[in-house]
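Lab notebook, bench 4. Still working through the backlog of constructs that have no structural model yet. Next entry is a single chain of 431 residues. Request: give me the structure tokens for it.
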Amino acid sequence: MVLREREEAGTVLAGQRLLADLTPLRESAAYRRLWAGTTVSSAGSALAAFALVLQVYQLTRSSFAVGALGLASMLPTLLIGLLGGSLADLVDRRRLVLITSGGLAAVSAGLTAVAWAGLRQVWPLYALAAVSAALNAVDRPARATFTASLLRPGQLAAGLALERLSNQIVLTTGPAIAGVIAAAPALGLRACYLLDTASFAAALYAVARLPAIRPESGLTRPGARAVAEGMRFIRRSPLLAGAFLADLNATVFGLPVALFPAINAARFGGSPATLGLFTAAIGVGGLASAACSGPVGSVARPGRAMLAAVAVWGAAFAGFAVAPALWLALALLAAAGAADTFTVVFRGAIVATITPGPLRGRVLAADYVVGAGGPQLGNVEAGALASLTSPAISALAGGLITVAGAVVIGLALPAFARYRGPAAGPAPAAG
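Model written out:
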């Protein structure tokens, strides 16, 4: 009897360790509100992102034109992102995010107006995408500092995994719902944009309820000198270099989102609902791995684990490029999504752990530039290669290069592969 009870208790504990750790949501009311508000707003953003890609493709029938959306977003990200990080180290980050979130809501309203007006030109879409990227280049790094301010160090990985769980819920449901909305004659793309605009109310409320998050540095003004200080810290750290290079390798070569409409049209009928399943499949895989993310906090070597996840990500997209059946293509995209969750969580935990508070805004800005600029550059690369060869060849080549790149990074930066994560520490003062 006692033995059976012990076995049952062990089974329960194993299940608890396997499932996502909800401790951050229980411990911090501010983090709980932020998590919920961000989830709602991200769902709206997923609808708008789907609509923007599909709208450009419907207007142009060109994968290169869809990829050019990445170029329109990448340039503001690169130009403003690093300066935005120095600004986040200078001012109250809560107030800064309230301003940028308001601007992003206005951009979404602009996309709604363009869709309702029935304009047949793509330049307003590129312009609004560029403005959105500029605002996000300031908003995202500042917002990313909230987690470390609200949670104790030992719960950082769990908090990041919960944020990834939120992202995956959105990634799973958002595109599928967007595909249904876009395919409905009475709704269409304009309804996607309108719902995104309304969803910003949740994000603004959650951020407004946060305590003030004041800078920890002695900066007197943002600028090139402040940015250079952050870059010197990154350059001296093989751990940050490895994390950033691994992410760039995965997103520049192994994320062929710009090819999805063309591959869908050529192989699977071209329905918007089917196109929505592509991104939703990535979300399903990521949702499954995020829901079972309990062990991530106990992984001894997060750098090595991140490289392994990047290799799986690339291999899955290479398989997707040549998959002959829809079910197999969706299964491979789900495998890529599962790997992506671990890649993001391990990278975020490494960056947040080894970065001192006074530099957090600038380093997280560089992290955002890498995380946001990489996929946009990847869309340009994938679209350009597809125009020279074919969408399938472009996706296949990118996936194989990603696998090879993960191996090269591990060999070139052994300190990154050997890095051991920290133990739990005391709770931070803020929050």
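Notes after review: Residues 28-418 form a domain with the Growth Hormone; Chain: A; fold (CATH 1.20.1250.20). The radius of gyration is 21 Å. Flag for follow-up if needed.
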